Amino acid sequence: MEEAFLQIVDENQNIIHKISRMYRDTSEDQEDLFQEIIFHLWKGYPGFRGDSKVSSWIYRIALNTAISTFRRKRPDVEYQAGIREEFHPRQTQEVSENEERMYAVLRQLNSGEKALISLYLEDYSYKEIASIIGINENNVGVRINRIKNKLKTILNR
Amino acid sequence: MELDELKSSWKQSASNPKSRSELEAMTEIKNHPKLKRIRTKLVIEVILLTVLLVVYRDIFDGVEKPLWANVLLVTGAVLFVLNDIGGYMLTKSPLVGASIIESIDKMSTKLRRLSRFSIFSMAIFGASVILFFISSIDMSPEKYWIVGGMGLTLIVMTYMAYRNWSMRIAHFEQTKREFEEI
């Protein structure tokens, strides 16, 4: 069982990295969250019957862990678009900077919005998102449109 | 950065992958960051309380104290340890629920239950220590002041614990609202 589990997690670990980076600011907190997610996936693995896609199951547990962990609120760090754009890095750095900018933008959303948008960005259908979150499909559409508008506002600041 | 760029950045986002052995190590309880901290706290508290329960009859004249004071002190200490174990078990338990909202609901219910027990056990333990020490002494005005101070400290600590728990529960309620509000 352990080998099969490790195979699944290994193949999908990018999901866990993304959730950790979106929900936590510092690399230390991200590492802790990554570990907690793996632990909860392992605890929940015997109950995974394969009714849903492996990636959906991983997303559900990963988002659950990120949301369910209570942390004292730290001062919010505002994303400053101008600061980053002063740099003209090499291409690899540019990719990495784009990523950092993306996470900085996403971190300005609340927990619920982060969960919805991550599933949307991953190209899940509204039906799948509704099933993972536990709300109806129509609500998913309305919420995603609102989040998109919010993101546009943040990006245009 | 536009929305399309955001989406493509999300798709391309990659971090240094963990090796199989690193992933395997993360499945073990001893490597869980939060459980490690709780376990250390639990071990220290259990050792201290065990030492207290072993030596209190000699050092604090437990033999001369009434039976009810002894029983109350032991009960308070046991409740205190049980509360720590409850917190450990809650953190360790898998996050169940067919959906995220269902999981939040279940977690919220468990947390409320644990918070009530935690505040109760803390108050009982604090009160049992105070009552144990005053159970067979002749009270004087100075001693009343000291006991009053201890009682006040206990009330403040209980209130702080209540506040901490309320904040945790409020966090869950807030998260649930974030998912539900349209």
- The CATH homologous superfamily name of the largest domain in chain A equals RNA polymerase sigma factor, region 2, helix turn helix motif
Report the CATH C-level class of the largest domain in chain A: Mainly Alpha
- Biggest sheet descriptor of chain A: none
The residue ranges of chain A in which pLDDT falls below 50 over 5 or more consecutive positions are 75-90
* Share of helical residues of chain B: over 70%
Structural class of chain B: mainly alpha
Principal-axis shape of chain A equals globular
> Helical stretch count of chain A?
8
Strands of chain B, count = 0
Low-confidence stretches of chain B: none
Shape-level CATH architecture of the largest domain in chain A:
Orthogonal Bundle
Class by alpha and beta content of chain A: mainly alpha
Terminal-residue CA separation of chain A: 49 Å
Q: For the residues shown, what is the average pLDDT of chain A?
A: 83
Q: What is the percentage of strand-forming residues of chain B?
A: under 5%
Strand content of chain A: under 5%
Helix content of chain A: over 70%
Let me know the average pLDDT of chain B: 86
Structure description:
The complex is a heterodimer of chains A (157) and B (182). By secondary structure, chain A is an all-alpha fold. Chain A folds into two domains: 1-75, Orthogonal Bundle (Rna Polymerase Sigma Factor, Chain: A), CATH 1.10.1740.10; 109-157, Arc Repressor Mutant, subunit A, CATH 1.10.10. Chain A contains eight helices and no strands. Chain A has helices at 2-23, 27-44, 54-68, 81-85, 91-106, 111-121, 126-133, 137-155. Chain B is mostly helical and 182 residues long. Chain B has one domain. In chain B, 80% of the residues lie in helices and 0% in strands. In chain B, α4 packs antiparallel against α5 and α5 (100-134) runs antiparallel to α6.
